[in-house]
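Hi there,

I know you've been waiting on this one. I reran it after we fixed the sequence typo, so this is the corrected version. Both the input and the resulting structure follow.
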Amino acid sequence: MAVATTEELRRWLRRSTAFTSEETAQAELFLELAQGVIEEEAGQSLDQSTDTVVLDGPTRDDREFHVATGSRKLVLPRWPVTDVDTVTLLEDDEVLTEGADADYTWSQAGILTRVGGWWLSGDQVIEVVYTAGFAAWPTSLKRIGLRLAGAPWDNPGALTAETLGDHSRTWSAETLGMELSNADRRTIGAYRARTAS
């Protein structure tokens, strides 16, 4: 699902009439670009999808989530996680079982916790099939997306300054007006990718 619909953008712009087919195409483009700006700042795709990833196992150099002998925590690339379908140890093709009394548990934050053992160390040793992202974008992000998508609509020439006396105009060739404010960055910061550094 996109950050917002073309109908929501029409209402945001306070347009009383429906978009023409050309305006609808423009609205779709602006919404796609706005979503890209938000997701780039977040460092992850925010649309809900089911992904298959092959992960490196934690090593002794990864200190954030474990003691020196190994790691019980494995961080998935995307969140919020809504489902973990399968976790497979590729070294011996072992499919693990989910549960507190089984092989692993998982959290919405995208952390897999190994029960009664350690995750394998090494490159590309764990395959995870999981669902992450938002089925419907949070309202705070939708507001940012609509504002970003509406900016080039309201100012298609990217005019940045205009003086009436002796008539002077200034345009910006560098931007469509899709710039994040510091407040936007703080809001999006709550949705940043949670990966071990």
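Quick highlight: The longest strand covers residues 122-132.

Best,
R. S.
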